[in-house]
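Schema walk-through. Below, the input block comes first and the output block second. Nothing else is stored per chain. Lengths vary across the set, and this one has 447 residues.
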Amino acid sequence: MKKLIPSLILCLAAVLSAASCNSSRSEMQPGSWISVPGAQDGENQWIAFRKDISLEKVPAEVVARIAVDSKYWLWINDEMVVFEGGVKRGPNPDDTYCDEVDLAPYLQPGENKLALLLYYFGKDGFSHHSTGIPSLFFESEVASSDSTWMCRRMDAYQTCDGLQPNWRLPESNIKFVAANDIPGWQTAPADGFVAAEIIGKEGDGPWNKLVPRDIPQWKDFGVKEAEMQVRGDTVIGILPYNMQLTPVITVNDPVGGNTVMIQTDHIMGGGEATVRAEYVTKAGDQTYESYGWMSGQQIHLIVPEGVEVKKICYRETGYASEPVEFNSDNDFWNRFWKKGLNTLYVNMRDTYFDCPDRERALWWGDASILTGESFYMFDRDIDDLTVKCINQLCAFQRADSVLYSPEPGIWTTELPSQSLAAVGKYGFWNCYFNTGRREIVKRLTLQ
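--- output ---
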């Protein structure tokens, strides 16, 4: 009987806990997977979503669960809330990551305008598994995705002709035609928008289970101006170091309709093409930010005659972990630390990369080196990325239990040295040794 009482207490506690979770969950308006009517698979699709809501008062916290294939940008009342949300699919071969975002700081009593821009890759790569359909899931206590949301294709976004990214990348080259833009679409009357189509419920395939994002939202360093140099028809923005960036250009074109080519000095990273962009001008002064991130130390604009480049700016973004400070009285070692730190930082985002240009892929031969360095060079927020990479390696093992790299990629041929690097001294053990997260190693031995 004495043994039974504690067991009953534990069961009661579990029931109360579940009731509490269900009560909190019931405050949510159930979300659905939605898309533009008649949505089909296809590369490089951009869709705008709108939802206007009215609030008597703003709750202290409004946590939204947001999931997409593939990336999104979120505004509330014309204020940027999330810059490039979403983690590439997936945590395992079936499920989909979701973000959890507190909307409360951006809401106000009365009318509120929610706007979300969806970027659908529409192809697999070494770092992404496509669901086969552009899709959005949004769930919160103030608004959830359903057929009352309005949407439309953004015809200003197109795909560049000519040189394309190599086959390992799921991203496309983004072309933006300014004449097709809808200025202020985030808050303007929703002309041209139509009711979204419900294409699934939570738990349905091909998205399946929603898994909370296990790494932080990207750190946004803000928009900064680059020093400009001119070499013939190319205007170059000089950056302070190699970084992950979105270019922001300001140009003047008296007539419009001219194409400005946008790329970095790493356009042929690793000997094969990475991402680039194009901007087709309208008449007059104009500023444009290309949302597909690039890497490099220079921004190159190839400019047609008659178009004046007035300013080149850049927005650096990256993994949200702060570097450890290191200073000595030796300039060589200071520079050595700084260069090593930046090399490490430019090779992490959704995962640890083999490179930020040609592949952006989780190869464990590279990851074992990068994770080993990160424990010493960043604060403890970086550990979440290491654990994410370990989890993905195990979750994507083949049916015969063979581990392979990259994950979640489209290459499943075993590379023994890659996997041995993960399970050896410089892989899982290194993570446990530096973090003390015993539960990770214990769980991995059961997979």
